[in-house]
Every structure is written in structure tokens, then in C-alpha cells.
## 1
Amino acid sequence: MIPPGLTASVFSQALAELRRIVGDEWVFTGEDVELYRDAYSPLWGEPDERLASAAVAPERVEQVQRIVRVANAYRLPLYTISTGRNLAYGGSAPVYSGSVVLDLKRMNRILEVSEPNAYALVEPGVSYFDLYRYIRERGLKLWIDTPDPGWGSPVGNALDHGAGYTPLPFRDHLDAHCGMEVVLADGEIVRTGMGALPTARTWQQFRYGIGPFMDGIFSQSNFGIVTKMGFWLYPQPEAFRAGTVKAVKHDDIIPFVEILASLMYSGTVNCHLGISSPVFNGPADAAFDALIATLDGGSAAEWDRYAAAHGKHFWETELHFYGPAKVIEAQWSHVQERFAAIPGIAFADGVSYRFPLTDEQISRVGDRVSLGIPSLGIYAGLLPQRGEPPSTGHMDFSPVLPMTGKAILEAHKVFTRTLREGDIEPKYGIVQSFHWRSFILFYGFPVTHDVETNKKIRATYQKMIRVAADHGWGVYRTHAAFMDSAVSTYSYNDHALHRLHERLKDALDPNGILAAGRYGIWPRHLRQDKPRRGQP
Amino acid sequence: MIPPGLTASVFSQALAELRRIVGDEWVFTGEDVELYRDAYSPLWGEPDERLASAAVAPERVEQVQRIVRVANAYRLPLYTISTGRNLAYGGSAPVYSGSVVLDLKRMNRILEVSEPNAYALVEPGVSYFDLYRYIRERGLKLWIDTPDPGWGSPVGNALDHGAGYTPLPFRDHLDAHCGMEVVLADGEIVRTGMGALPTARTWQQFRYGIGPFMDGIFSQSNFGIVTKMGFWLYPQPEAFRAGTVKAVKHDDIIPFVEILASLMYSGTVNCHLGISSPVFNGPADAAFDALIATLDGGSAAEWDRYAAAHGKHFWETELHFYGPAKVIEAQWSHVQERFAAIPGIAFADGVSYRFPLTDEQISRVGDRVSLGIPSLGIYAGLLPQRGEPPSTGHMDFSPVLPMTGKAILEAHKVFTRTLREGDIEPKYGIVQSFHWRSFILFYGFPVTHDVETNKKIRATYQKMIRVAADHGWGVYRTHAAFMDSAVSTYSYNDHALHRLHERLKDALDPNGILAAGRYGIWPRHLRQDKPRRGQP
């Protein structure tokens, strides 16, 4: 494959220049490029599948600077990846077919970890496993926060607005970052925040620096290449304990979430949590299917009868508490007092730990990510249960919901109906709390290597985006194939925010060499080709 | 005064256009413009004092849009203020003399306050007092966070990176915001985050939306006019308690801050705090002056002898705990256990409250801002103690320090020496914790209405900025008169970050009509006039 707009000979010259910068062995062409295919692509094997033309893997920031200068000279489209593990969101494949993947996996230095000031400064090729091992080997009393799974990059994940499982602010990875180094499209290096002060002592401790706070524009975008990034780490807590809260009835979700939200907004509950329903998320039977199939998807009274007949309670959430043992006991006790306002509410104590754990103890921990321990367990556990049709991968469909029970009930009904209409097994989504003030309702969407099946799946995914937007629930992140669609729903004032993104793109990357199409931002010369706005 | 570059007749035409938009009574010229002088200007009465040429006060966002279109047509420089109370940082006067102040005080609507989801959406003219009264009158179980004093604007303060006194994230006002509406220089309205979704239900609950997170660029800058802004509010806690920790010796500051930082990074301590020294911040005597005057500003042993002779302990901090009564008791107990590692450490219980408070109880609260209650008490209390020379106002000098005792000791010595060299009374700064991971060392710098005195003060302030930067301590905010100087110290890679700001300025405000010079960002046509970089 040759990048659009380039001839074979010009492309060949450009690659030769890249080889001079990084060495022959770090420019990949031919079948090596296969490794950059997105195994979870919903466009697998179709003409629209997003494929790389080549890849280049620099080791140092100076090489990144030289590469972007070559890209400007040749109008060579680049697509930056960190560890390239962004599965479900595009993996290591570009958004714009024919791009050369700028693979930063070799830039994998852990530049600093401060134990007293609890931060890390890392390059994009560092993985969660790398950072975890570094800390554990040295016996530092620090935790990282890791998403599922742990082979990804703290830098890449934060820039994609990814999240994990320990307390806030740590699990909101962009929110827990502090300071960036960015190579702009013209090859200039910028350091943000206090990094702009040549002698700075607080680059990883104070984010704003002076003047406009810039960091956010380099996330979910293509305005620069982040080459270093700082993260706040969590000082190892003294203890952990889990406790489950169970509500009996369908409509209990209203006070359940109101109490929970109040506890979360005030910081008494500060953990990741999932709100699941033993009824909705459990196995279906004929009575279940019959209820779902009614016009309104089942009334509260009908569902309560169903739950009672099956001996199930309706809602539950497992809460995690981290901190001094006596503090978390007091928190759990307070939480139970608050929830006691709901008739029939029940509580169950869960696991508890004192830290540090030995290797042997860790080997017996089931839910490692909640302790900031990277894992690939997700691949052995949840993901194989991908339902029908049998899938080779998945995408996340993840609309943002307000923290209200009403929204959860409404979203369950609306999305279940849409999935059924699309002939996709109407699994219920799981409400999760990754961010400060909102829920994300996650649906694992199957993808396959079968063209016809994928077409059907894509049509439903597309419809889900539209239905979500119609209800005021935007998605916070999406697979490369749906970025234009998702962004097009954020259309206030004739897509004014998107047009602002385009103005920044033109100002910062006038030749449009960086990650064309990422989160719907196309360089000027490609805008006529993109799907028209408002037509997801 | 006429804006530079405009003739009297063109200016007069432009004002006539503004009158057609807002009505005659809302365009201010002549002596009315005096009200926009910065009473705390260190340039008071000098040719360089920053003065407005006129002011215009729109009531609605549509009027703001029309005003910026007129400004573009006439190349009329505008300077936006919210409530105009940014005293110590420039007040309501423009950075660029001759600008027309765009005064948003009439845009003072509280658009929404959600009790269950604990947020507010407000216009720029709303003050902390307004928002507090609104909530209190309705008996909503919500707290705001307010800085000293309470007549400022939540919008303006957050955009200036201001801070308050309740737990994080609330007291970091930019960090506690969620969602903006911005009028760009061309009159387009943009809503950020979920506000870009026309039907959004989470504009004030999820910040990122999709794509690049833009909000930060509108803070400490001049890229747009923020016309609406959301803020997370703190659900009224059950209880509050204060406790003081006292360390005896000079060098105790090292473990003292190490323990404190660990507690803060992990969230067990989450309050604003000041670290003061009864020795350094107390009254001086001859022995004190003699020690200060030594080459190294006094050794630890000498200071310990001095403190012992005066019956003083060396360091103390008052901690505040907010939350369920049993949780905060456990936190205070844990804190005491941790600090017990320092020999001689002492603890004292402080005030405690249960909420809500009655009006009568509130009238007896000394430290209102710590309970999120707006106040003007700062003017009756701290500020009159402005020292020598007698001052009519003050500026804040506020470098960012890492959370280490070493940095505090070093900064005290360095800045005391610089102040003495400038013949300004060497009051010690107070270390304060407004942000997540760093301290700010505050010095109240006197300003007067006497030209010669102000010259001396300015020279020392200028020198303090340079000395701070040389030690890696950048200032996070500064008076309008020193923005160029402060920004010029953030010079990594030949001022690459600042040049990035300028590129954004050119892209978003090509005619340079918005707040020229704010935080060192000048439009292209004025860049040749500004102080050269690197020469603060």
C-alpha cells in the first residue's frame, strides 16, 4: 500500500529518509506491516478497513522531530501509537488508510519515579506492566492505576481518555496526569505546565504552569505527538475492604443512585464501581424474553414479580474502600447508615487486605486491577463471553449517563430495544463509574471476521450512537471506524466545537501530517472526502 | 483616552455601534471609566498605568456576539471582566491601555443549580455571594467554594486559576469546573464537553465530551469570552473538625512535610492548609534580625536556640476534616499516629461543627471561607497588616513549591534575602496548599499611590520573579503589570510554549481584539512593542 497522494517512488524516497533516521531495522514495510492491523476491526477484510502503509519506530525524541520534518517535506501521513494496544478503539491501525504508523514502543524509558512526591514521568512506550514492575522491584510504596488489560501505555491510554479502577483522581488517567512533552507537527518540542520553566522542580506536581492550560488539546486529537508525560501515583494505602450493597426492587434504583451519587460527590465513596442487576444482567428465560418484548420493556411491577419468583434482588454494587483501616471501617459503616433509608436494603462484607501484599498473596487476588495490579485476566475472563454472534473481538459502546436511577432505567430500555431491532442479543449494559460525576454504560459489541455479520453489527452500532445522542447521552470514546459518526452528534451551533478543532488543526499542522481523522479531525485537504457532518 | 490605532472619530463611531447593541446607559465613557481603574495598580498615576478607554456592559450572550463583531470591524481592543474584582491581579483594568472593558456584570443569571447532582451553571456576572445566597435561601444541601474575598465571580476566578478553602477538587476552581460556553473572537458560540451535544444531559457532569478537551485553553488567556460555566458543588458534609499539628525544631519541617504530603496525596488529608512558623512569621526582635542578617540566614541549630529561648515551637499547620463525623474522627486519629514519628510533635483539637448551621451560628464562625461561606473579612483582618511601606493595596507574589520541607527552607532563605536587598520588610511568606500536589508560597507585596515607592517595589517584585525562576519555582499567577515578565521565565526551548500560545492567538483571534497582553499573549500587530522575551 502507498499513502494516498504519493507516488511509489516518492514514498520509497520518504522511507529511505526514515531509514536514515532510525536505521533500516526500524522501518517496517511489506508483511511486517500486517502486525499493525487492528485485530478487532469491524471493517476486517473490507475495502474500508484502515490499514497502514508502513511503520517507523524511533528510539529518541530527536528522531521523532526528524521524522515529522520528513513527513512535512513529503506530505507523508503519520499515525502515532504508544504500545499499540488500543484494542476495541482501533488497535495499532491508523484512522486514515495509507498512513505510516509512528510506533513509539521503543521510547520506553521510565524517566523518574518519586516515592516521596508520588509521581512518575514516562515515555509512551512504557506499559502498565513495565511501570508496575519498576515500582515493585524497588519496593516503593506506590500504586499505579491500570485499565483492563495491563499491556497498554499510561501515555496512550490517558490521551485516549482511558480509565482504571483505583480511587479518583488516579483512575481517570487524563485527570491524573501532570505535565507533557509534545513534539508539534513542525518538529518543535513544547513542554507544558511547569515543564516550560527550564529549571522546573514541579513539572509533575503542578499542572497549570502560567497562561492557558494546554494539555487537554493533545488528548483524543492529532495536534501533536506526546513524547513524555507525568502521572500522579497513589501512595500505597494501609488497607482495602470491599462491601456489597443490594436493593430488592426495580424502582429502588432511584434512591439507590441518589444516595450513591451523594456519597461519591462528597468523596466518602471514591472507588470505581459497577451497578449491575442480577435480573437484567443474569441469564434469560422465556418469562424474561416475554417481558422484554412488551411495548415498554416491562413495568416495574412486572419486573418485581419476575425477580421475586426467581428469588433475585434487583440491583447491586460492590464498593471498595482504600485507606487507613479505621477510616475505611468508618466509611463503610456510614455508607450502610445512608443506604438503610431504602427498605429491604442488604449489605455483605467482601474481601479485605492489608498492604503490602506478598507475591503469594497477589497470586490469589481475583480482582487485581482494583489494587492497581496490571493483568491480562480480562482476556481469560469476561471477553470470551461475547455472546452471539460468536466474535473475534469487540468494540465498546459507551455512552455517558447522568448519575440518576431514571437515566439508568431509561437507557436500559432504549438500548435493549435498539439492540433487539438490530438482531443482536440484548445483553444489558453495565453501569460503571470511571469519572468524577457521571456513569458510563458499557456494552461490549461483538466484531467478527465475517463481512456480512460485521455489516449488520456496524449498522446497529451506528444506530446506537444516534439513539444515544437523541437522548442526550454522548459517547466518550469510540472505535476509529466510528469517530466521524460519534463526533458528528456533538453538533451544537452547526458543529461549532468541531470547527474549532479544525481551526486548531490548520494552525498547528497545516500540512495535515499527524493522525488524520483521529476523533473526526481531518486536515484541510481531506475534509471534502469525509462523511458529511450530521449524517452519522 | 482613545484606543491606540483608532482615530477619535472612528472610536466615536464604534462606541455608537456599541450603544445600539446594549443601549446608551450601558456604554461608559469619560469619568465613569475611572471606576475601571485598578486601585491596586503598582503603576498608579504613571504613564504606564493600564487604563481603559471606555466600557460596555451587555446583558445577553447575543449582545456579546454583536460586540465582538463590531470590535473586529473597527479593530477595537476589548478586555473582558466578570465582576471585575480581580484585585491584586489587575482588578477591572485592561492589560493593554486603551482597551474597552467588556464588563459582564449584568450577565448575572444563575441558570441551574442541581441539588441531587450537586452542580451549578452560572454566568460570569454571578458572584460567590449571589450563588451562596441562592443556595441558602432555598435550603439546598450544597456548599460552594469561595476564595478571599467573596465578591468575585466563580467564572472569572476559575479562569484566572484562583482557589479557595474547602476540600479538593472544589477549592481548585478550574479543576472543579465542568463545561463552558465561549464566544470566540469571530462571534461564534462554542459549548465545550457535553455541551456540544444539543440534547446533552451531562454538560455539568462530564467534562471531556469527545475529542480534544479544550476548556483549559480559555483560562489565563485571551482566546475567547466565557459566557457560561458549570461548577461541581460539594454536598453539605455532616461534620467538620479542625486540629493543629505542631513541630518543635527547625529541621522538623523535613519529616513534617513528608508525612503531610503522603497524607494529602492519598486523600486522608484533603483540606486547604497553611504551614506557618511561630518563629519566622511571628514578631521580630533584635536577635531575630541578627540571625536573619547572617550569611546563611541562620543555621538550624541557631534557630532552634532562638525558638527555645522564646518558648516557641517552629512549625504548625491547622488541618480541617470534612465528612461523616465518625470518618473524620478516624482521619484525625490516623493523622496523629502518622505524625507521632516526629519527636516532640504536639496536637491540639480545634473547632468542630455539625451542619447545617443556623444564621446565628454562622455569625460566630471566624474562618468562614473554610466552610464555603463568602466573606469580605479579609479586608478587615489580614490585609491592613500590610507592613512597611504603608500601602494602599497589594499584589500577590506566589511561586509554586514542591511539597518538601527542603524547598520551604530554601525558599524562605532565598526570598527573605531578596526582599531585604530590595529594602522591603522581610516578612516570611506563608506556605499554602490550594492545589493537588504542590504548595504556593504567598507573599503579600505592598503597592502604594506613591510613584517612587512603587518603582522600588516593582524592581523587587521583578527580581523575585527572576530569583524564583532561577530556583525552579515559577509563579502561577501575577498582576497584569508583570504578566510578560512572569511568562518570559517559562522559556524552555526558546519559549516554545509561549510561541504555541501565539499560534493559537493568531488562529482564533486574527485581528487581536480580545484582551491583548493577558498572560503575555499579544496579538501579532502588537508583538513588536512588547518587552523582549527573556528580559523580564
## 2
Amino acid sequence: MAKSLAEKKYTVHFMPDNIDIAVEPGANLMETAIAAGVHINASCGGASTCGTCNVLIQEGQVKSRRTDKVSDIDYARGIRQSCQSRISSDLVVKIPVESRLEKEVLSQEATGIAAPAPIALATGWQFNPPASKLFIELPSPTLKDNASDLSRLLRCLRQQYNLDNISVEFSVVKKLARILRDGNWKVTATTLLDSDSGQRLINIEPGDTRLGHYCLAFDIGTTAVRGQLLDLNRGKVLARGIDYNGQISYGEDVISRIACCRKTGGLKKLQRAVVATINGIIKGLVETAGIEAGEIGHMVVAANTVMVQLLLGLDPKYLRLSPYVPTINTVPLVGASSLGIDVADHVHLYSLPAVASYVGGDIVAGILGAGIYQRKTVTLYIDIGTNGEIVLGNSDWMISASCSAGPTFEGGGVKHGMIATTGAIEDFELTPKLEPKITTIGGAKPKGICGSGLINIVAAMLKAGVIGQNGKFNTDLPTKRLRAGGDGYEYVLAWKAATQIGKDIVFTEIDIDNLTRSKAAMYAGYQTLINSVGAKFSSVEQVIIAGTFGNKIDIENAITIGLLPDLPRDRFIFIGNGSLLGARLTSFSNDLLCDGQRVAGMITNLELSENADFMNNYVAALFLPHTNTDQFPSGKIKEMQH
Amino acid sequence: MAKSLAEKKYTVHFMPDNIDIAVEPGANLMETAIAAGVHINASCGGASTCGTCNVLIQEGQVKSRRTDKVSDIDYARGIRQSCQSRISSDLVVKIPVESRLEKEVLSQEATGIAAPAPIALATGWQFNPPASKLFIELPSPTLKDNASDLSRLLRCLRQQYNLDNISVEFSVVKKLARILRDGNWKVTATTLLDSDSGQRLINIEPGDTRLGHYCLAFDIGTTAVRGQLLDLNRGKVLARGIDYNGQISYGEDVISRIACCRKTGGLKKLQRAVVATINGIIKGLVETAGIEAGEIGHMVVAANTVMVQLLLGLDPKYLRLSPYVPTINTVPLVGASSLGIDVADHVHLYSLPAVASYVGGDIVAGILGAGIYQRKTVTLYIDIGTNGEIVLGNSDWMISASCSAGPTFEGGGVKHGMIATTGAIEDFELTPKLEPKITTIGGAKPKGICGSGLINIVAAMLKAGVIGQNGKFNTDLPTKRLRAGGDGYEYVLAWKAATQIGKDIVFTEIDIDNLTRSKAAMYAGYQTLINSVGAKFSSVEQVIIAGTFGNKIDIENAITIGLLPDLPRDRFIFIGNGSLLGARLTSFSNDLLCDGQRVAGMITNLELSENADFMNNYVAALFLPHTNTDQFPSGKIKEMQH
């Protein structure tokens, strides 16, 4: 956009971040916040339907379209939906607590404090990174030996490293003559092994630069992006970084992101948003480790199929339409800088291959990292989220499915739901008098309920008889906490005065209903996979729960509500972020990289969306824990003991 | 360069082309002519030393540095060296006839009239172009078969064409989803076979586009660029084009071009100049054939090593310095449009591999096209020019050399020398009264002498005794044509009134000397190669003369002066433009492409610049025809008959 310097601009000051930005008159306020780097919650991606991006206009004027997401009282005190507001003067804007995303919780995770070490891991692999640095001393040319610079280099690579049939990138050719002479015929070559085209010569530097040999491993999640800086000489993690995926402002889940791509320029915006997030993380990683960004020679990414397509700038529209076809599962190497990523031009981006539209490289990374493909043990791998991914199998066979669990586990579709940041209710108990004992993330005043909190609330209420197996409140109970609200019966978790948001935080029957549907979708997914191979739940020898959300789940409570199958507790293993684990291992070992491609190829995906068995299983699971209580013997035993 | 619109500009009008251009005050006049597309002769590349870029300022003012290249009389009438002139007003500039390059002769060649059919050709090859178009009908995706778009395509390529392990360019991935659906699951894939990385998928189009499947073959010579448009379905040449290499204005030979690269921005200017020439030719080819430029799917180039490096934007400076090392002999595929060539983004440029700094892909193309590597016949392959290239061998062995013959054969270093365009004296006889009978190219009034003319002049004078074997004029002869001039003795070929240039056209002893050195370098080259393998001239069973200059040589006269060895005349074969022939064949046949790479690898290059045997042979050849007359029995027989 070419702009005349004379054009009038308005200044917008965002609170509490204290960030200023100058914008054109008429600019959209939500997009302005994104441009300013102010994290804002916008679940629906600016479609005006979610009401989570509301802000308080403290000074100045906006032109706002009013929807039913802003109450009369709020409107009067200056609350506006930022996605529906255009800037018409200098502004001071406050992002209210419920519209803000906070980095604290993520940061805690980044330091590694909250990340438990995985206890199921791939074994037996060699440390042989796909990217290598090779030091070469070349004989100077003479009249008797005046082979071309490139022939000389290739000859030495053959003689000194037994490397044959290496293909050479033109960018190397362009600087080769200068680098060979700058280095006085001592140079360091960077090679990259690619399964398609074999060894590639991707960079050449003067002198011996082998000591500086780093790689980036990234997990690009729909919600958060996590990066690690790896030392390829020592196989160590030098620094960890994390941030919200900048695409959140355009929609919280993959479906709303895909919808965003239907708008003109939408795909480009999403692509730039996630690249900006990645670049921010890289900057931090490089600073923390005290290395030069130019010493990074490779990059590995694990992400779900939609995230991969958006990162590469590929239109994901067909992913959303039946029969759910992605453009690619196995992504060719792509020049990272050509995508806008702030690394040297020779760095290639390797994406872990996907299985299907909704079983992506992040899951393949997890299967790889957990070594499931190496063992005979029949394993159920579960990644719980808006899109729940499930893999069942062992070293001989694997079958996968994805089930649309809905956003409940990330706080979506829940009256006071929120993602797992400061102030979210994450643990819950009931006193004998049916009073709540709540624990929030960061110990702050409560602001809402996160996914793990929901599970713990429903389990506690179910056990106490506050909720029946049909998901309805027992309205006869002697407590003022239970009352009829706007959305049917509700339980007051925290009275207005004790909250950050200035109103009662409640848990409604609709919320229970949504959670029940979500857990039913997951459970029906396991069951359909198990049925499809003619097995039973008891055949599952190991359950691996992946993902940062999975990490926070209380297994006992999850079984109580029927989200996890009722198996002996010692069969459950938390693996943490399997996606990042797989990305890291793939950076370290070409063996594992090849294994990853084999794993993606060996998994058979079962499409659940029009599967009759899945529908039956789903309906049967719409009880707490399940219609068929034989499947949950623990609950029955407890009842008997009761 | 950002320019204020308000800045003053001058208009320069070039005659006789009638081309106008607006320039900044102080702009260099030669560069302005180049920018305007006015062909101008500038042998020294603007170093002021050659005096060939003189122009007539008809109106307006220039600020000019005066050198001895402009006589007092010429200076008075407005002649200026364009390379030494800066523009200080609006101008009308006439390019005098001797400073102009004319396209007529080249155009004649382009129509094929002047190009004899080669009579030595590679045989036994299959028509299997490296670039293929494959039509594919894909099954539409279903829930039971919802593989990714790319997996589906690759599966069909495997099933329908037995193509496995194909690597996919990211540009194809980017448009794949759209093209598959636009084509309703019927598409045409373009694949390219690369010796490094195997089959590549480089393009995808909706529907069946197999009929439009074309390739460009180019010979990029130091002086002229020749292109052909090939139909890859029928193996036919659809159109031919030719133009002077736009780099001529920066220097006539490769050495002055390399020198030009030492200047800031010089390499970029040269790169752009040859690309502009190529683009002009492509435009003409596409128009002539009546095809769409987008239907061109591949491009093959044969050129000497310096031309290849300049085209790719690689600094050629080390080519000029001992030990004469090029950056690359075997060039990886390069995106043609990334070099500025006006073709679709998926078109790759393949350059025939070179042997050494001065034995390039053009020579490999010729060896390939002439099929020398296929026969047991011991062949001497000769490409005569400023840089003379020689290859000796057969299917079992080959040895090459290049000798710096100097610019004589292209009219350089000769008082009235010129390249072979209209008005150049190309044939010459002497009457018994020692009067000249001259023939000029195009039948025009004489303007100068071209290389083949020089050979014919010296041969005729040698036979008539006007010149002795030592290269000196016999000054006792009764003719006014022989006289003492500024450069020693000279023979007047044409009196002033009969010329285009308004002065006597003469041939001097210095000219004879230069021609003798040039032919001696070539002859010493053959001899050194033959000696190096312990053979004799009589072992050579076939002499193939390549190049457009070679085509014009009178064999008998060339033997008379000692430029060609005195072998039975039926052993000599003209092959014409071997470079373009090889480029075309390589476009048609992957077998031949592989052969070309094998040929480049099997040729041993002998560096002559510090070779003692070469120096001896050279000194011995500084007689007409040679010090050792045993080597030229024909001459002795004639003498005996005389």
C-alpha cells in the first residue's frame, strides 16, 4: 500500500500493554490490535458472532456496528466489539481481562518447568542429522589441475567424505568462486539429505564453521507455537520459546481459519500471522542461546495439516469440504526464507508428513517420538483437542481417526469457558455442603473455566450427585449455588465479588451438554477404531496421552466422566508435546526422519464423519460416563462401595 | 535509481535508425546508444582504445575527451568517440557506416539459406525429450479414497506412466488443488528428467495440453546469439532467430567482457544485455511459429564457458587468471525466469556441460552433434575464432585444447578489419597485372575486410609472389597498389572513391603479421594435441570444421597459408553451427543429453598457455605456410609444377 506522507493518521494507545500504533482513519480496531502485536481473543475470527473481542473505548471515537454481543449496560460504559469498530479519532483502548490472551502460562511451559519428561520414547536410533556440516581442505588449482571450482569441491567431498551424487543448489554455485578463495581453499559445506533427491549441497562458507551448526524444531499448533533451538553437534536443546499462534485473532479453531481464507487476502494474512509468530520465537531463541541467526542451517516443523497448508500459503478450502482432501501430506522441502521466515536463504523447511486432512504431521511426530511403531505393544495414542486425533496400533499396523470434539476442551462453547491461562479454574472439589473449592491457574481471582477444569467440575458433581448420569442438575439439593439462569439451570462457581470479570462465574446445563458431546465424540472415536480391527478395549496395552491439554488431565476424573476408557491406570502414559518431540528427533536423526515417512505411509485413516458405527458409538456415549456401564466397571465398583 | 520527475532530460535522436531516447544530462553517449537499442561497434568495450565507436554529432553538444582515435579532419566535422562523450544538450547523432553492426547478414543465416546441412551427425539415438507432457485422468476423491491431491496425482503417474520417485517442485504444489479441480480431474503434467535428481514434476495444467509442447534451443556465442523453437511432439524446428549478442557493446571478445565485469555493476549489465538479446529472439520465435510463450516448457543452451557464467550472473574473473578456473563446468538446472528470461516460471534452463575454462558447452555440443564420440574414426574437430577450440579423438579417447588466436579472424587487430557483415571483402583474386578482384558480402561497396577475406587475400598474394613466405611484401613489383604507409608497406585493396568509408582500404604488413600469428596459434594447437598422443597429422582420418566462420573458409586457401593441415581434401567436413545442433539434439533426446555429460567427462583438456611443445610449434608455424615445408606437400608440388 503506497501512502502519501501527508495523509492523516490516528494514534491508538492500547492498555494495559501501553502500546501505540498510528493508523489510517477508518481502520478496523481488531486488525489494528493485531498489527500492534496486542494479543486479543477473537474466537470467531472477526465474524462478530462470538463477542470475545470486546474492548473498552476509554478515550476517542469509533464507528461501531452494534450486535447483541454487547449488553446495554456495557455499551453505555464504552464497550465495543473491536471487530465491528472503525477508528475515527485518536483512541485510548483498554483490552478487558476476558478479551486478553496472556503469555505467562505459556512462558512457564517454555522454561520446561511444567513439561514432564516423556516416558515412552523411540529407541535405537543413530544421531545422524539430515543437515551436516563438512570441513574440506581443497588443493589449490594449478595448470595441471584446473578443474572447475565445483568439480574440485565435489571431488573433495567424494574423497574426504565418500559423498557421491550430491546435487548442488544454484545459490551455492553463485558464491562458490568467492568463498573458496576467501577461505583460502578451506571451506565448510552444509549438506542436507532429502528423501526425494538425495544429498544436496545447500551452503558453503569460508573456513571451518563446524562449531556453529544449529537447527530449529517447531511445533505449530492451532493455539500455540513452540520452538526449540538445537545444537546439531551435541544433540542438545539450547533454548525454548513459545507464543500464541498469531492466527488466533482470525479465529480460534482450524475451521474458522479455513473460513477466513475465503475472504480476499485472508490466506496471506494467516500465513503472515504465523510467520510473524515464528520469527518472534526465533529472535528469542537466538538471543537466549547467544548464537548468530546465520548459523542456523535447518528447520523442522510438525503441525496439523491445516497449519502446514497455511504456513506454506496453500489454500486449505478443500480440507473443510467432504471428502476432506488436503493438497499435500508429504511436503517437499521449501526454502524457509521464501515463506518469510527470518533465517538464511539456504535454510530449508522440512515438514513432518501427514496421514490425512485431520491427522497431521504433529500426530506422526508423536507416534514417532513415542516409538509406537517400534513395539508390538498395542497402543492407543490420543491427542485431545477441538480436533481430537486418535491412533491405534503397533509396529505391524496402525489405524487413525480424527473426531470433531468441538472447542469445549479449549473453553469454547462454554458460558464462562476460556483457554488455559491465568485465572482459569483448573481444579475443583465440592465440600459436603456442596460449596466449591476452586483452584485457578496462577492462583489469580477466577476469570473463567479451562478444559481440564470442566472435566474436574463435572466429575466432582457427578460423584456428589449434583449432576445425574443424564447430565442434568439435581435441582432438589439444598444450596443457593444452584439456580435457574438465562441458559437453564446453573451452578455458581464464584460470586461476582470474588471474580476478575465483575460478574458471577457459572456452570450451566448447556455447558454440561457440550462437554458430554465432546467427550462422547472422543470415546466413540476410540471405540470405532477398536471395533474396526475386531478388538476390545481390554486389548489396548498402553494409552499414550499427548498434547499440553492432555498433560493437565486428571485421569481418574476423565474416566469418571467417560472421556478416557476405564482401563488399569498403569496403562496410561503422558507424553507431553509429542509434536515437538518428533520434530526434535527428526532434526537429530535421518533414521527417524525416514521412519516418520514410513509411519505416515503405514497408517490407515478411517473417516468417521459418515461412519455408521461411529454414530452409534457416539449416541451410546452421550451419558456420563456411558449408556453401557459395563464399559466403566470402576464407577460401578465405587457405587457398590458407596 | 529514484529520479525526481522535475529533473531536466535531453533527447538524443539516433540516425539512421530514427530512434529517440531521453537521458540525464552528462549521460555517456555509447551507453545511451546501447540503452536505445542502437547497435554500435565498440570492440574495446568503452576503454577508448579501439576507435570503432566513433559517431557523427550532427546537432547539439557533447563533452568529449579527445584521443588519437579521431583525426583532426574528423574531429572538425563532428566525429567523436561515443564512449568518451557525455551528453550536454539535445542531440542528433549519426552512427557512421563503419561503426554500425548490421543485421542483414545474420538474418540471411537465420532463414537457413546460408546454413549448409551438416554431413556428420550423431546416430542411433531415441527421440525421448528430457521434458515430457503427460495427460492424466484422476479418479475424483471420495470418503473412501481421500488421499491428498498430490498423493493422488503421484499414484496416477505411477499407475498410468510407470513413473516412480518423482520429485515435486513447490510451485506445482502451490497451484495443484486449483488446477485439479479446474480441469475436473483431467490434467497435463510436465516432467523434466534431471541427471542429478531424476524426474521432476515442474508444471501442471488443467485439461489436455499435450499438443502445445515446445522447447527453446540456443547457441549463445560471444558475437551472435542464435535460437530455435522446437516442437517436442514432432521433433521439428518451427522457427529460427538470430541477433548480435547485446554484450558486444561492452567488448568484442570474452577477455574484454571479463574485464568489464571488474567495473561496478559490470556483471549485471552483461547479464542483462545477453538476456535482452535472448528475449528479443524468443519474441520473434513465438510470433513466427504462432504459439503462446506459455507453451514453452524447456530451454537448452550451448555456449562457451564465459558466456555461460555471464548468463548465470557468475563472476568470470578467475577464468582469465592462471590457472584459468571456471566456477562450474556442469551447471545445475536453473529457473530460466529467475535469470530474467521471458518464459513461464516452470521453465528450467539446461546448459550443456563444459570441459574447461576455454573449452565450453558449445564444443561439447558440437562433438555430440557430430557424433565423434560414437565412431572409431580419429577426428580433429576445429572451431576457429578469437578463441580457437580444438578436440582430437574418437569413441575411445578425446583430448582438447584452446588457443588464443586473437581477434584477427573476426577482423580485429587488422587496420581495415571488420566482422562478416555487409560490405566486408570476403573473396579476393589477383589479376596477372596484380590488380585486385574483390567480392564483398551483400555485393555492397567495400567497407573493410572480414576474416575469410583475409585468408583469401594472403593466399592469393602468396601464390602470386606479392607476399613472401616470411609475410613481407615484395616491394619490387610494378604496381601502384603497393606503397609505404603509416604502418609500413601496404597494398591498396580499394581506392577511396570506390569505398563506403571515404578512404582507401588497405592491407598492411602488420595485418599479415597478425594473421600469421593467429593461424600459427591454431596450427600449433593441432600439432601439440597430435604430438601429445604420439600421433602424426596423417593419422587424422577426418577434420570437422565447425562454426559460422569455419563455414566460410576456403579450404584450399586455408591450407595455402597454413591455417589448416595439408591433408587429403575429402577428409574435411563442414558442420556449420555445431553448438546449436548439439543444443537441439539435447532437447530432443535424453540419451544424447546423457551422452553429452559423458563426453564432457571423457575429454582431457591440455592447457597450452605454458606448454613448451606448443611454444615450439607456434614459432615453427610463424611462416607461410610453415617453417617445415614437409608438412605442406601440396604447396611444394605446386611450386614444382610452377
